Amino acid sequence: MLFLLWFRVKQPESMSQKQLMEIWKKEAEAALSAVKTGTIKGLYKVSGKREVIAIIDVSSHEQLDEILETLPITRELGHSVSVEVYAIHPYENFYELMKKLTS
């Protein structure tokens, strides 16, 4: 199951830039490890913003929940991180559906 995840990170007022970057470094290390294992299919930083977009491949909704709850940035920043989740599928699948529906 493919999902697009859009992370938005807000720096808590009580946290220094250095502290935020230290947490984000841990997150980046975990994310890049997941890229190597194939769980993350695409990983992108939005330029000029504290936002990251990931495309992940998981076997269940429960696995998605587990991943999101155990991310270093979620554990350490909690409410300062918002995540939008979108179920996605290859455009080719949509094209095949359109062919079927129009025949």
Keywords:
48% helix, single chain, 103 residues, alpha+beta, 4 helices, four-stranded antiparallel sheet, Alpha-Beta Plaits, 29% strand
Structure description:
It holds the Pfam family MIase. This is Muconolactone Delta-isomerase family protein. Residues 1-88 form the Muconolactone isomerase domain. It comes from Sulfurisphaera javensis. InterPro entries: Dimeric_a/b-barrel, MLI_dom. The chain is elongated. Helix content is 48%, strand content 29%. A 4-stranded antiparallel β-sheet has the order 2-3-1-4. The chain has helices at 17-37, 61-70, 72-77, 91-102, and strands at residues 2-9, 40-46, 51-57, 81-88. The longest helix is centred in the first third of the chain and has 21 residues, at 17-37. The mean pLDDT is 95. With 103 residues, it is an alpha+beta fold. Strand 2 (40-46) and strand 3 form a beta hairpin. The relative contact order is 0.25. The protein is built from 4 helices and 4 strands. It has a single domain, classed as Dimeric alpha+beta barrel (Alpha-Beta Plaits, 2-Layer Sandwich).
- Taken as a percent bin, the fraction of beta residues is 25-35%
Using the coordinates shown, work out and report the CATH topology: Alpha-Beta Plaits
Count of DSSP H/I helices: 4
Strand count: 4
Question: Helicity, in percent?
Answer: 40-55%
Distance linking N and C termini: 28 Å
Radius of gyration: 16 Å
Based on helices, strands and strand pairing, what is the structural class? alpha+beta
As residue ranges, the low-confidence spans are none
Shape call: elongated
The ordered H/E elements are EHEEHHEH
- The CATH architecture classification is 2-Layer Sandwich
| The CATH class | Alpha Beta
User: What is the CATH homologous superfamily assignment?
Assistant: Dimeric alpha+beta barrel
Instruction: Please give the domain count.
Output: 1
Strand order of the largest sheet: 2-3-1-4
Largest sheet: 4 strands, antiparallel
Overall pLDDT confidence: 95
InterPro entries: Dimeric_a/b-barrel, MLI_dom
Domain Muconolactone isomerase: 1-88
Protein name: Muconolactone Delta-isomerase family protein
